[in-house]
Amino acid sequence: MKTPLTGILPVAPTPFHADGRLDEEGCRRVMDCMIDQGVDAICILANYSEQFLLSDAERDTVMRLSLEQVAGRVPVIVTISHFYTDIAVERAKAAQAMGAAMVMMMPPYHGAGAFAPGEAGIYEHFKAVSDAISIPIMVQDAPLSGVQLPVPMLARMARELERVRYFKLEMPYAADKLAALIEAGGDDIIGPFDGEEAVTLLADLDAGCTGTMTSGLQPEHIGKIVRQYRAGDTDGALKQWQYCLPLINHENRQCGLRATKTVMMEGGVIGSDHVRHPLKPMSQRTKDRLLSMARDMDLIALKWGK
């Protein structure tokens, strides 16, 4: 990428048939739908992609299908997180070889931090990946890992590791940490992003973030928030964020990663909203409310395949 990546970088869901098999044609259709949603990039194989429920062979298939289908129309970010450093390195090299524009990775963790390797081990983990590839790395800093990534450590990685330039921060008080990281890292922080479906996006934009990584549910609406804010229309950005908030809240608190799949199934993008066991489907009550709100917002995904 010749210019820094900004804007809306949503996570693609991984579609399955109703019997749990990987839906390869659905993978391709998801990519096309998300591009039509006006995204600035697409992230694959992330937690909201159910990456933890995919075999290694399925990961390779999803990566190949996605990159082939996108065919350079937008940058693709491939998530490569793994506890074992050598596997993270091999995943990063494979993603670059297949055409990924960036990789994203969490710190090594297992059991909500119970086996976290400590600051030196975390630094070495990221360094090994940075030394192995020539595309940027996005550090995903999320409570899910249970691993603490203090601002001085993140700023040090940005300063000393050539490929570590992008950061996705999603935790309570994310805006304060974003502001502190941007101040500590200076020009080495090329892409400060937030997550959590943009629930704190206005505060995070105030703090200096330049984009957001959400689900693929409503990027056409959330992307407007970032574009308006960066163009100087902060009042318009606030109004747009307030418009998106009810659906963001329902997704975050009631649906999780199932929301995008359900809306995409209703809109004919994919044939099933199946999630793999031990995840469970949404209740019909939750699904009905989701689809009602999606219709009110005239979501692209809800009508894309009809």
TrEMBL record:
Q: Which CDD domains match?
A: DHDPS-like
EC supergroup of this enzyme:
lyase
Q: Which Pfam families match?
A: DHDPS (PF00701)
| EC number(s) given by UniProt | 4.1.3.3, 4.2.1.41, 4.3.3.7
- One MF term from GO for this chain? 4-hydroxy-tetrahydrodipicolinate synthase activity
Q: Please give the superkingdom of this protein's source.
A: Bacteria
Which InterPro entries does the record associate with it?
Answer: Aldolase_TIM, DapA-like
What name goes with this protein? Answer: Dihydrodipicolinate synthase family protein
